[in-house]
Amino acid sequence: MKSEIQVFREYIRGRRLRRTPEREQILQEIFEIHGHFDVDELHLRLRDKASKVSKASIYRALPLFIDCGLVREVDFSDGHWHYEHVYGHAHHSHLRCLGCGEVLEFEQPGLGCLEAHLAQEFGYRIKGHQLQVHGFCATCQEAE
Amino acid sequence: MKSEIQVFREYIRGRRLRRTPEREQILQEIFEIHGHFDVDELHLRLRDKASKVSKASIYRALPLFIDCGLVREVDFSDGHWHYEHVYGHAHHSHLRCLGCGEVLEFEQPGLGCLEAHLAQEFGYRIKGHQLQVHGFCATCQEAE
DNA sequence: GATGTAATTGAGAATCAATTACAATAATAC
DNA sequence: GTATTATTGTAATTGATTCTCAATTACATC
Ligand SMILES: [Mn+2]
Ligand SMILES: [Mn+2]
Ligand SMILES: [Zn+2]
Ligand SMILES: [Zn+2]
């Protein structure tokens, strides 16, 4: 399996885009984040490391990472986008606590089959799906 | 089954809120919309009927309708919220075309079972789920 | 290693959905 | 009717994201 930075560099070259320290700093930081993140968090983490990368550049870089399969958008329906490092990770769904925001991951194998079924029934070329389940974790149930 | 307006009026009374013509106009209009809608569309439709309800009031009323189970938020991940009339409708998921925005509905019965399973495994009290599938419809595939 | 080019950057302005402050109005309880 | 207090419309505000623009920089070519 190619290293992630290698995947990104090949993608950049293939598109006649440019390899910049900003983009690689951002990507490097994403590799070091365990779990989900948003633009603000990523920006703060870079700031903490004395990187001067601007938010605008982060916003501009993320679509590239997504396009080459290193990052995935995660929608927690809370008003802004979240992201996760996805290269080499299994596809999974999220169970989110409405109280404290905790996010657990689980796999739901049946959905591949559902995609095939929908493709056939409606004539769609399916690109993907998102399943999120929400509720209250044990701790937040007590607090209610 | 109680009528929807009745559900709303009981909810309003129970909370010591006030029954206003604006809220009932908005609700009435929602009943007449077939399918999904957003705030802007709802506002325009009310305008067309010479109603002077403001957008702010729509934004303030929707959470009430959601809270009493008449309306559901629908997340198409396109930058703003959509809604649908939900009272008496079966729960369903959405298949959306990334090209033209068409939305089809389908049922996926296995997810009730999944909720029970997750509740048990992680100790959550599950409140609901959202499944969206996206891809390209037959027409948009050709156009590519 | 200079040079031309076109992509990229940071700063700040613009956008857009959604929320909020405020003063005027109106629904309910008495 | 009167008092109370929720609700309204307007306009201002917020916050995430995108855009603009001038300055910088990566990369191909000489
Ligand atoms: Mn995840
Ligand atoms: Mn629907
Ligand atoms: Zn919790
Ligand atoms: Zn389409």
Can you describe what's shown?
The structure is a homodimer of 144-residue chains. Chain A is an alpha+beta fold. Chain A has 2 domains: 1-89, Arc Repressor Mutant, subunit A; 91-144, Dna Ligase, domain 1, CATH 3.30.1490.190. Chain A is built from 6 helices and 6 strands; from the N terminus they run ααβααββββαβα. A 3-stranded antiparallel beta sheet of chain A has the order 1-3-2. Chain A has a 3-stranded mixed beta sheet with strand order 5-4-6. In chain A, strand 2 (71-74) and strand 3 form a beta hairpin. The longest helix of chain A is centred in the middle third of the chain and has 13 residues, at 55-67. Chain A binds chain B through residues 73, 75, 77, 95, 97-98, 104, 106, 108, 110-111, 114-115, 118-119, 121-138, 141, and chain B through 73, 75, 77, 95, 97-98, 104, 106, 108, 110-111, 114-115, 118-119, 121-138, 141. Bound molecules: manganese (II) ion (2 copies) and zinc ion (ZN) (2 copies). The site of one zinc ion has 8 residues of chain B, from helix 6. Chain B binds a DNA duplex (30 and 30 nucleotides) through helix 4.
